[in-house]
What does this fold into?
Amino acid sequence: MIEVERLNKVFGSTPVIQDVAFTVEAGEILGFLGPNGAGKTTTMRILAGYLPATSGTARIAGYDVHEDSLAVRHRIGYLPENPPLYLDMTVEGFLYFVARLKGVAAGSLAEKVTSAIKRCNLTEKRKVLIRKLSKGYRQRVSIAQAIVHDPPAIILDEPTIGLDPRQIIEVRNLIKSLAGEHTIILSTHILPEVSMTCDRVAIISSGKVVATNTPENLRAQLESTSGYEMEVEGNPRKAQSMLENLRGVSSVEISPNGTQSGERAFIRIIPVPGAEPGHELAATLIDAGLGLYEMRRTRPTLEDVFLELTTTESAVTGEKQAMEE
Amino acid sequence: MRLIVSNIIAIFRKELQSYFASPLAYLVAAVFWLISGFFFVSILLGPDGIIQQVAQKEQMGVPSPPVDVAYRLLQFFLGVMGALVLFLLPILSMGLYAEERKRGTLELLATSPVTNWAVALGKLLGVVVFFTAMVIPLLIYEAIALSAANPPIDPGVPLLAHAGLILLAAAILSLGMFVSSLTDSSILAAILTFALVLFLWVTDLIASRVGGPLGEALAHLSLLSSYNNLVQGVLDTSSLVLFASYIFLGLFLTAQSIDSLRFTRR
It folds into this structure.
């Protein structure tokens, strides 16, 4: 449904996105995840036909977003980063205007507008001027604006920004209910949003897509780095070599580094994938005469995946730059 | 084609509604009615008004060609109106695109299946129709005053004159719309539009100073001389073409400037 190939955008001499590529199957929700300034909005704008790409192609429903811009615009709903609202119009008036603009036939105008209003829970506000609405309601009106003409593809740039927790849940449910009939791509920098709403995630960092996968697989990918964390009293150096020699332990990390006895320290263990050295670890520590205060499994969250993917990327480029200098 | 027309109508309706909902537009209309009413009364009945002048001349027995009060009134009055709209129209046109740029709604328009031309045309129609609504009350009191004229005047003359006023307004608004598309500050758009229109207003003055072929070319660009032709009841094709050219130029430049905006903006 949405195919993006080697998309590049250069502003002046700064590349904003580089070789971005992904596909979204019909009926799927793709989360476009990245820190602020990673190029999410730029990618969304290119997909919506608002900005032309410097090179590369993007196709929606088989039409090139630049060559067949009008054909694409008929088939997309787009929520820009800033809600595009006319403050002097009522909610209903605005949605009628957008529906007409998007080419909805006069016969089905009322039906489509009513259904969008219902879907976005705006029924009681439909005669209210947009100027008088709170930020959360305005955001809902902008989402209604993106779905009012029932487009096959929906592009949402940060759909839950500025909403309170209850509204966020409502919007997420709304987005989920749209999947199936609609293909959705949504950008966000909020991780739980992706694991809760999206079928697949593309992680973008400094303008490059660093991973595309399902949220579950991304988490599983880092499962190997799950480990143990222990808080001990005493000098953990005594136990270090014993711990390292245990079967199933791949690395041992102690912090703070030079610990005096009588102070508490943290030991982090990364096990060999598949190994469960939990009880040997505890036994070893106690044999070494250390006081064990806390021991827990650390499981990677999507945050860790995200941080690892986005920070390794910058560390690598940082090294490159250092080498070049 | 049908789709484009319905798009234009959608934009037109939205634009017209927003004028009728805007306090600023009412303020402009109020100032327009107040000043035009004041001038109408003083031109007709004031101490230096046309009727007084004629009466004085008759009293003093100065032999003079008979004055056609009705035509003089129309000419004077619409001349003043032409100058008045020069100040007021930039205020109506300033927000046409500048507001859309500022509010981010341009992104909605640019990603909807509408061409830049259709948007520009719809907007221009909206503001021109609003201005026409401002002119209608003038027609009513002029009709009352002119109905007393003896011999009765040809209704074609005042109608042509007002059509001229609306054409003049459309030309100014079209150029103002282009200026508005260049910036996201409404005030800046209003000031620049005023400067541009003032320049076009007085080009025939400049032309007479410059002289030569350049001066002649400049003289043809003058809004004032074309407007005066129509006000005097002369249905001059070259005036119509000039106004149409300005309107088209404004639409064309607006469409181009919005198109190029997408290439330069971050």
The radius of gyration of chain B is 21 Å. Chain B has a mean pLDDT of 87. Chain B touches chain A at residues 3, 6-7, 9-11, 13-14, 17-18, 21-22, 103-115, 262-263, 265-266 (CB under 8 Å).
